[in-house]
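Target chain:
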Amino acid sequence: MPIRTAHEYINSLKDDRAIYVDGERIKDVTKDYRFIGAAETMAALLQMQHEPNFLEILTYTSPMTGDKVGMSHIQPKSKEDIKARGDAMKIWMDATCGMLGRSPDYKNVMVAAWAAAAKVFDRESFDGSNNIQQFYEYVRENDSMMTHVLVNPQFDRSKPAHLQESEIVAQIVKETDAGMVVRGARMVATLCALANEIVVMPAAVTWQTSDVHKTTDYAFGFAIPTSTPGLKFICRPPVAHSDAASPMDGPLSLRFDESDGIAIFDDVLVPWERVFLFRDKEAESVIRGQTGAGPHALHQSVVRAASKAEFMMALALAIAHSTKIDEHNHVQVMLAETISIAEFARTCRIGAEAEAHETPFGTFAPAMRHISLWQNMFWKFYNRQCEIINTLGAGGLVGVPSFAELAGEVRSDVEKYFQAINADSPKRIKLNRLAYDAALSSFGGRQRLYEQYYSGDPMRTQSLMFRLYPKDEHIQRVHDMLDDLEGRQNPNWPDKEGGPAFERTWD
């Protein structure tokens, strides 16, 4: 099956999956007002793959069938492949203003990397190498949309899961001829209501016990359809203003609220052919270290960040221009800051792709050096862009009326009193509603929190960058310089006629 159309994707969600939100089970996520906006957006992304202007950028030829498949599934064999994949990601991210952290390409690149490193899944406890390869081929050829869960529920964060008495953490409770049975919960399943498959990989744990059986109850990796019996998702309430008088009051949130949920496994049977890791004490290190998948997933995130920062920059420029406050020096300083942030994100992407390197698996991966820079800094920069937009909009964001007022009884007043020097009332209201949605609304708040914790605790991420950075060569540079200067001291210093403080190097 080649790349799917929008209609094919929408129809694939009509499978009686167990999605709960606001105290009720959703019968059809494609028609429910809390999910329909994001569902339509995801469908539109898949449909773009069929458009003549994008076909050659968003797809490549399947090595198995010869059909066109999504570019995000490619296992890059060169720097050029890395850049081509980045170019494809950028089209989707520009189309969504960089607001979708779990667009289809995110999980696609990760599964492709795992499959390229399939031999790593051949473990003493279980050989999942063939399973991960077959799963990769399945999602590639079927253009499947995936979600994933990596994090244990926040019950007692002072202890690893296997040392807690609680049974809420997802764990193996039984083994049968057909597969393993899993009970418990995992979070955070972003896009769970709109995905075809859920990928469940090891949570970050620290093995601190000799009780192997109990410990390895939590050590597994697998993938199953989101409609699997016994699997349910409890989603947070929507951050979109779903009862807004006009859709223009939520131009971002009504389209890009991808939803988040907790996955609950009520004695779910996972077939052996869908198991990748089984009772493996090193399962977490396999996924996070040995496969080398991290830089690939984060490549998508760097591209997304570039699109997002560019959009927020454009929004800040538009707001300032509407009232001509961009003629003031202090405003120009803030606008220059938003431009710098956008260029920072773009540069991180360029560097990661330009310094891509070959992996032990015969594929190429983007350079983690530039990705780590993005990881550690972008969430702070994004918060700053939101602050600048709020500052520039000020009372105009707080007091902006619904776009529906332009069709109401006070239309004439709205047209008169909400205009700006460079924007009539309809244009200014649309602009300020957009800014409110981006930086002030619950949707905007979720975006800020997402960026901060997207790749884990920022403190741990920064600590990891410190630990992995090649520090010794830089430290040695300082000492070498000092040793050189010590050796070239002028013995006659500070004799005014005795020459420079240090002997010349050019005589």
About this structure: Residues 205-209 have pLDDT under 50 and may be disordered. The chain is about 45% helix and 10% strand. The longest strand covers residues 261-271.
